[in-house]
Known about the structure:
single chain; 574 residues; alpha+beta; Purple Acid Phosphatase, chain A, domain 2; Immunoglobulin-like; seven-stranded mixed sheet
Amino acid sequence: MTNAITRRAALTSGLAASAASCATRPKMTPYVAVSEGSVGVFAHGVASGDPGPTSVVIWTRVSVDASPRARVIWETAADEAFTDMRGKGETETGPARDWTVKIVLRDLQPGETIYYRFRIGNVYSPVGRTKTLPVGAIEAARFAVISCSNYPFGYFNVYDLIARRDDLDAFIHLGDYIYEYSTEGYGGETGAALGRDHQPTHEIVSLADYRARHAQYKADPASQAVHAAHPLISIWDDHETSNDSWKDGAENHQPETEGEWEARRRAAPQAYYEWMPVRDPEEGRLAEALFRSSTFGDLLTVTAIETRLMAGARQFEYSKVLPTLKTPEDIERFRNDVLWDPTREMLGEAQLDFIDRSFRTAAGAGQPWRLIANQIIMAKVTMPDLTPHITEEDIVALEEQWSEARAFVEISKLGLPANFDAWDGYPAARERFYDLATAAGADNMIVVTGDTHTWWANDLVARDGRHMGVELGTHSVTSPSPFARSFLGGRGADYALLTNRDNKHVRYLSGEYHGYISLTVNHDNARAEFVAVDTIESQNYNAFTKAAFDIKKSKDGAKFSDADGLGFKEGFLF
Length: 574
């Protein structure tokens, strides 16, 4: 009798080796054209974003001596040398908006490449390059998808790598663009070793604090390079305000020492709108309503959603849930009633209405794809039982980094969601989103997700078994993964394989190597390449494709059709 290979048996012979091989770092120059004198006056570079068919935002910030205002000239052209000038104007900035400059260029042509720059007196900024959205028939759309750029944890080599490309329509940042921690907090030790300490050194709470932190991130050369090279489509996650934020608070906000949450909740978005190339809120629209959509011809619509400040309910915490689960009946009650409480909101009615309109407009236009820019894991992921694999010594060591570690390990044997700060913590809200997508004809949905600092390829399946589409999770620019080998006492990679094995909707999972998703969408299929860098501890790095996935259209929604670069066990589990 021949024994069948099972998902469990596939893990018994050691960890799978990565099939990816390193390639030499591209020998291209990042797209930043710097003029003499610009480093001092335009110390934070230039950026563009929030593109439309006939408009796009361009941005810079001027560093000036104490003055009530500064007069800034902006110019656009069809070429980098500015021999074919297209537009010119002037504006003023000052301390009310932290000396940032944001211009919405209008009356442009769809699918147009535009070069732009700023000037104060005779000093020019670096030159930026941007694009408007195409209309009508297009063959393909190409994106770089990134998340979680924590300054102290390493160099922004992923930004540098994306800046060297000249074939992108946009880069999509899924949040955690900045982090709020002090130099004694998350990443502080690594930052000290690399000479990348957070500034200011304390945790940021006030408007001045958030402005200073944004300024530090924008001063990074790789950040300036990627912003100068491509337009940005962005959505925030929690660290733009504070860790594990919801509409009424955050895990990392202590009112006793840090003041009222509402003050911080106002300050963080104000700094974000000042320092990011996104359109300011329209009159009467709440600042936290950052959700928006971008249409790429007859091919797809990118719908960026907001899951934190608009309507998000408070997350469950392992340490608070565990003491309530004393019997099997308690566990079932929590799983079926508490988790599925229909009042636990994620998006809110206003945003659901917006998403419905976005989906219906795309369906009416005959677009074959929907691309959702999403912060937190949407797929159902049940925690594997870690208790046979983790020692007391491991738990004690992990508790030094994470206070919830012991409760996390204990609760892992109960078959509950792996992450309460994900859509799994709000399953009724997820079903509302799925039902809306079905009713609006949002076929062939691809969800791109950040937050976890981990590579994912997931099937999205509703409670009643409907296949809703696929999810692609990107690793981080710098933040460490809980599925990396070094996590859980050196068992992080085993944890990844266990999670993959025990969850049929998780097709691929890896915490190794930082990077971005290179996503190309054609009319009949899409391809996602997980492009990685071999180090963030040095600015000398190699780049390689860690894994790649082909996605096809189907009458049941987008589905994975093939995968490349997977190890034996990864390939079997896929």
